[in-house]
Amino acid sequence: MLAFNFFGATEGGLFDINATLPLMAIQVVALTYILNSLFFKPVGNVVEKREKFVSNNIIEAKNKLSEVKKLEADLLTQLQSARTEAQRIVSEAENESDKLYKEALELANNEANASKEKARLEIESQTSAARDQLSKQADDLSELIVNRLILEK
Predict the structure, then answer these.
(1) Full-prediction pTM beyond 0.70?
(2) Residues 82-140: pLDDT tens digits?
(3) Residue by residue, what is the 3-state secondary structure of the chain?
(4) Domain map of the chain by residue range?
(5) Which residues of 48-81 are buried (b: 16+ CB within 10 A; e: fewer)?
(6) pLDDT tens digits, residue range 30-58?
């Protein structure tokens, strides 16, 4: 057997170089190939798939987040316009109710004034009728007094 003695090593030591060295090299290459094909490639593929999955999920999440922010901004704009519209409607309703109140008040005042005027005219009419009646009674009474005085004389 051919053996090389490195650094004063004896046969059967750690660095024996003999016919088993090529066999060991072949075993290491075969083990590397087997481990690579059976373990490292599948694990690497799983890791790559997982990284792609995670990166796709991150990209999708960013897209959805930007979409949500856009929708939120749109909803805030719609909410603000709805609030403005509601305030406008409330303001119009208040103005309309004020207008109706003023119209009703004016109508009530007009009716009250008309009733008051009617009552005044009726009172004047009754007063005039009472004066006419009183005047007629006074005339009748004075005529009666004159007739009695004339008859007594």
Answers:
(1) no
(2) 999 999 999 999 999 999 999 999 999 999 999 999 999 999 999 999 988 988 888 88
(3) CCCCCCCCCCCCCCCCCCCHHHHHHHHHHHHHHHHHHHHHHHHHHHHHHHHHHHHHHHHHHHHHHHHHHHHHHHHHHHHHHHHHHHHHHHHHHHHHHHHHHHHHHHHHHHHHHHHHHHHHHHHHHHHHHHHHHHHHHHHHHHHHHHHHHHHHC
(4) 36-119
(5) eeeeeeeeeeeeeeeeeeeeeeeeeeeeeeeeee
(6) 999 998 888 888 888 999 999 999 999 99
